[in-house]
Write a structure and sequence with these properties.
ADP-ribosylation fold; 10 strands; Arc Repressor Mutant, subunit A; alpha+beta; 3-stranded antiparallel β-sheet; elongated; 4-stranded antiparallel β-sheet; single chain; 8 helices
Length: about 190
C-alpha cells in the first residue's frame, strides 16, 4: 500500500536526486548526497512530505533506489544519475552473463553501435532476464539483450555494482551483445 500511495512522490524524489536537484533549490555533494532536511524542505514547496513519509518511501521502494547515510542526516539515489557524481559504486567482477532490457525498436541501433549510457553516467544491467524484461516493458514492446559480461571483464572493461544490486558499465560494445529475446522466442 505504501508503495502505491507514495509512487508519484518517490518518482519526484528520484528526479531530484538523480537528475535535477536544482528544481527544489538543493545541491548534491560530489558523492550524490543531499541533506535530508533540505530535501524535505524543498519538496514541501510543492508536495506534502515529512521525515516519516521519506523513511517509508526509502524502506518500501521495491528497487532500493535510495540510501540514507549511517547517521540519517543525508540521502542519495543509489544509481541512475545524469548529474556527475561519484556514487561510490563498487568495482567488481561480474557474472558471465548480464541482461539489458530495452524496446524492440532500438534493437537495430544497439546491435550496430552497442549499449551507451545516453543521458545517464552508466549503462544499467540486470543479473536476470525477468528484471531486464520488466525494464524493457517501460519503453514499449520489450526486448532483452544478453551481455557477455565475463568476456568483457576479461578483455579489460570495468564493471560496477550499486548498493541496490544494479550492475553498471560505461559502454557495451556490440560484439559483447547477444539478442536474448530472439533466442528465447526460438526456443518456444
Amino acid at each position: 500500500m505504501a508503495r502505491e500511495k507514495f509512487s508519484s512522490l518517490s518518482r519526484f524524489i528520484a528526479k531530484i536526486l538523480r537528475h535535477e536537484p536544482e528544481i527544489i533549490g538543493i545541491t548534491l555533494d560530489s558523492h550524490g548526497w543531499a541533506k535530508v532536511s533540505e530535501l524535505i524542505e524543498g519538496v514541501r514547496k510543492t508536495r506534502p512530505i515529512d521525515i516519516d513519509i521519506l523513511r517509508e518511501i526509502v524502506a518500501t521502494d521495491r528497487k532500493g533506489r535510495y540510501s540514507f547515510s549511517d547517521d540519517g542526516e543525508f540521502i542519495r539515489a543509489n544509481q541512475g544519475h545524469s548529474v556527475e557524481v561519484d556514487a561510490d559504486l563498487e568495482e567488481r567482477e561480474p557474472p558471465e552473463k548480464l541482461y539489458h532490457g530495452t524496446s524492440k525498436d532500438t534493437v537495430p541501433v544497439i546491435s550496430a553501435e552497442g549499449l551507451k549510457p545516453m543521458t545517464r553516467l552508466y549503462v544499467h544491467l540486470s543479473k536476470d532476464y525477468n528484471t531486464a524484461m520488466k525494464t524493457g516493458m517501460r519503453k514499449g514492446k520489450p526486448f532483452v539483450f544478453r551481455v557477455k559480461a565475463g568476456e568483457m571483464f576479461r578483455d579489460g572493461h570495468k564493471f560496477y555494482i550499486s548498493a541496490n544490486g544494479v550492475w553498471q558499465v560505461k559502454f557495451v560494445p556490440p560484439q559483447y551483445l547477444e539478442e536474448e529475446s530472439k533466442n528465447r522466442n526460438a526456443e518456444k
